[in-house]
Amino acid sequence: MSDEEHHFESKADAGASKTYPQQAGTIRKNGYIVIKNRPCKLSIQRREHITFLSVCDSHRLDEKKQNKATIVVEVSTSKTGKHGHAKCHFVAIDIFNGKKLEDIVPSSHNCDVPHVNRTDYQLIDISEDGFVSLLTENGNTKDDLRLPTDESLLTQIKDGFGDGKDLVVTVMSAMGEEQICALKDIVTLGFGWSGL
């Protein structure tokens, strides 16, 4: 066999998957988890005993369960009982819309955890229809993001841009969604020009 017969072309990067598996019992405070197809984050962790679900209840729970990524707000773990595995009860907050989501998973089973990235872009323009124009690191523009729905952040962005400040926005991305989550002033970061 020649070398040409074994040549494979990679079409995806190493981080191409939107999620990765992690054992439920190892997910901790400030960790991320996917619940009902939404990326979520856990911000409070509490350990306590919870009652076990009957076999019928656990089947109903599995039927309702969807995979959304969220922030884990609370984790409770029960001890192993007569019905099998210890269970983890996750209470988490969706990182994009702020909704509270819950899930119960056997502690030895795998959960999906989203790849969450934060990227800084310089704000170039704000359109009348609520889209922002951002400058990427390589000098291209990114024009597919809307202004955030958070009133405080929205006001800061509009006021700062209206005052002519050079602003940098942080964009959080996970599972194919992106949203502006933070704002910085370039001058206060020390990136401004000092008298030439």
State the gist of this model.
This is Translation initiation factor 5A C-terminal domain-containing protein. This protein is mainly beta.
Mean pLDDT: 77
CATH class of the largest domain: Mainly Beta
Largest sheet: 5 strands, mixed
CATH architecture of the largest domain: Roll
Residue ranges: pLDDT <50 for 5 or more in a row?
6-11, 45-69, 192-196
Determine the CATH topology of the largest domain: SH3 type barrels
The SSE string, one letter per element, is EEEHEEEEEEEHEEH
Tell me the total number of β-strands. 12
Please indicate the count of domains: 2
Helix coverage percent of residues? 10-25%
Quote the beta fraction: 35-45%
Number of helices: 3
| Radius of gyration (Å) | 22 Å
Q: N- to C-terminal separation?
A: 64 Å
Notes on the protein architecture:
With 196 residues, the chain is mainly beta. The protein has two domains: 19-114, SH3 type barrels; 117-189, Nucleic acid-binding proteins (OB fold (Dihydrolipoamide Acetyltransferase, E2P), Beta Barrel). It has helices at 55-64, 151-162, 186-189, and strands at 19-23, 32-35, 38-43, 69-77, 87-94, 100-106, 110-114, 117-126, 131-135, 141-146, 167-174, 177-185. Strands 2, 3, 4, 5 and 6 form a five-stranded mixed β-sheet that branches. A five-stranded antiparallel β-sheet has the order 10-9-8-11-12. A two-stranded antiparallel sheet has the order 1-7. Strand 11 and strand 12 form a beta hairpin. 23% of the residues are buried. Mean pLDDT is 77; it is low at 6-11, 45-69 and 192-196.
